[in-house]
Structure formats: C-alpha cells, structure tokens
Amino acid sequence: ERGLKDGHKGLDEAEAGDERLPLPTEEAAVGEGVTYKIFSREEEIAEIVGLIDKDLSEPYSIFTYRYFIYNWPQHTHMAMYQGKVAGVIVCKLDRHRDYLRGYIAMLAVDTQLRGKGIGSCLISKAIRSLREEACEEVVLETECSNKSAMKLYEAMGFFRDKRLLRYYLNGGDAFRLKLWFPGVSYYYT
Asked: Where are the extended beta strands (E) located within 12-62?
C-alpha cells in the first residue's frame, strides 16, 4: 500500500514540479473551430452520453453519468465543435487513504476529430483542475487491448500500476494506470 510521508509537500510546494509533466499547455484544434468548456447545463448530458456510448465498451446508466458530472462538474471538460460536444473527459476527486486522488472515469473524442490533440488537451485540463484542488495522484482503468488509449496515457506520464483480470463485462482485462506528480513525496508502507 502507498502512503504519504509526514510533512509531504502540498500543492503549493509541488506545483513547481508540475511543468515536468508532459501536459500540453495550448488548446488543440482551436484553429479548426474547436472550443473548450466545463459542464454547465443538464442538456449537455445527452450529448456526453451519446459520445461516450459510441466509443466505450462498458455500458453506463444515466445514474453513473449523473453521479460523476453532478458531484464534480468542475472536472468534466468538453471540447465543442459546431455547437456540439465533440470530446469529453469525466473525472472525480475523492479522499483515498490520507490524500486526494483524482479518477478519470471516461474519455471520448468524436472519431472525426481524433488525431488532433483533443484527447491530450482534455486530459491536461482535467489534471490541472484536479491539481488546483490539491490532488496528489490520478488513476484510471483502460482495456489492455486498447493500444491507442495506453499510448496516449503513457505519453502523458501515466504508468501501468496493476493488471485487473476480467475487469470488464466483456471479460476483457484492464490496466490500472497512475500518474504521480513531481514534488509530492511518496513512500511505500
């Protein structure tokens, strides 16, 4: 199990190390008409559900979406294109043991707009908003067979923490990926 040293560095002290993370600082595809925003209206949920349901293999009920989005709306970042949701990342921030852990629940980008850096931009926005609230690590699960997702997250500094056998309803395995932040002191107990 992972714990934190007494007197570990908090967000203010650790922020200086965040620039070492490979996070984009520019908004992707803005020149092509893509804009970014945070979730703000109930009407946006239907578009978010439609986009995610097309791309993720795991079915989610509307209650799952509402749980994440309504409890942590500041961590639901959207890429908009021609007035519609073209990309979204849905996250939460919770206490885990004795520190705050961010969790990326869902990420999807419209197939027509992939390869333009929108996914990386959404991940970066989510990580930065989580860090603003003193998040000390971010975790997620992704299918072992999803090579493009693995490549994307690993390029952004995530590492494979654990393999979860038969994690998904389709029987597929998952990797739990973690991102630890520079400047935050970690130790193993």
From this structure: 34-38
